[in-house]
Write the structure tokens for this entry.
Amino acid sequence: YLILHQGKMARAYTYVLPLPAKAAGTQAHHVLRTRFIADYAIGISSTYEQVKADLVRGNAYLPNPAVFAFSSDVTLPTIETFLPLAKQLVFQVVCARSA
């Protein structure tokens, strides 16, 4: 899962990285596919751990999935800027671990 946190709201996405992860001539944001799941309010009573537990409960086909949380103090356009940056960072981390 990807959790994108800005202000008091967080958006949760699932991601899929098809194999082979590194196709010649492709860029990271073209390879990693995401799907929006839900919005969550983040605060003292609702933490990343609780959001992950809710996501796992709602999607039982992934027993203990990897969750990447990204937080921004600056307000960014989610679809145009924040999500592509998060996708690129996840792609780099996953490809570095698999190499």
